[in-house]
User: Fold these one by one.
Assistant:
Number 1:
Amino acid sequence: MAQDGGAPAVSRGTEPAGAGAAAALVAFDFDGTLTVRDSFTAFLRWRAGPALYGLGLARLLPAALAYLIHRDRGRIKAAAARVFLHGLTRERLEAEARAFASAALPSLMRPDARAAWDDWGRRGVRRVIVTASPVTVVRPFAEALGAEEIIGTELAYDAQGRVTGAFTTANCRGPEKVRRLEARFGPGVRLLAAYGDTAGDREMLALADTAGFRVFTARP
């Protein structure tokens, strides 16, 4: 089924675990691999504007100092969600994410990564984005790219559908990427290829016949 504008709908993970496990799969990390910088940070800056973004960073200082001790990227990401998004309705966040993707996609995407992405698509391979960023922020990019799947960190909402600043999943990084791929496509999932740019992608790359680590370097 296509979304408005003709982009194919991206799976929201409603199919049973293991569905499509036999399909040929290629996995791409998003931030720093398909893009030149972190999409969640860019979204928060775009949404807040320079002045409010600076104030928000000041409020994040305790969480940043705590990160030097616990080194938990998920905790500091949740702190950023609380500071910048707490109380925002799901509908408004999704609308703003779509507006951000429309404005930012040309300046965020690596041309060589996009070329590889499109090449796999022409071969009829199922392409999955596996990202530590919140799925709500990345999904509009995934839909514009024609991704068949997206796996990422899921924001939590309260009973009124407002962002709480917590997550309903573990931060989708490192071994969590493998766990999420196996939950979606079944144990022992094998990838034709996988691409990433940080240590948080190494476990996913180990699943692939072809592992591309920091192979994309072009800038828009």
Note: The first helix runs from residue 39 to 59.
Number 2:
Amino acid sequence: MFEIPVEDFVFIVCLIVGGGLLLITVLVDDILGGLLDFLNIGFDIGGVSLMPLLLSFVSMFGVGGLFATRTLDVHGAGAAAVGVAFGGVGFLIAYVLFNVLRRAEGAKPFSTSDLVGRDALVAVGIPAGRFGSIHVKAEGQTHEFSATADVDVPAGAIVRITGAAGTALIVAPLRPAGSGGSAPATSGGEPSSDAATAAEGEIDRG
């Protein structure tokens, strides 16, 4: 009957278990890392979860150990040392790859609830209980959103975002258009370009 040496059996188990779990982590999600985070014992190295790095080490340790015993005819502590060397290389390769993937991921898009508490400029006047639109600075750009308020808010006014309702925002006026040093609105009710620029500058500074 064919028997597998104990040291080879250990290396094979490391290769199968470590490699299998690493594959699941790459294809599905970092399940084990998420479990550790849930238990408040999660760690990361340079923003990379520790779990895939350890799994890479374990699987490459198995590869290195089998290479030592089957190819180099090295056994015992020598085979373990080769396994550790392979594991270290696997750890570094996994760190580089996962770090590149992490950096390549697009920034998580912000939601309307993330804007609560920010100041904005009313672009289209908001009748009480109805909708107008506002300009708000987020992630380095100015975005336009539908907005509603409990009171009439004229175009050009500075408002504070107090809540979100789906894709629309709920706002409350801080200062009406033309007050507090803002330039007056044009005759059509829309803020002049100078007024908008000044108000948006105030929002950016806030």
Note: Confidence is low (pLDDT under 50) at residues 180-196.
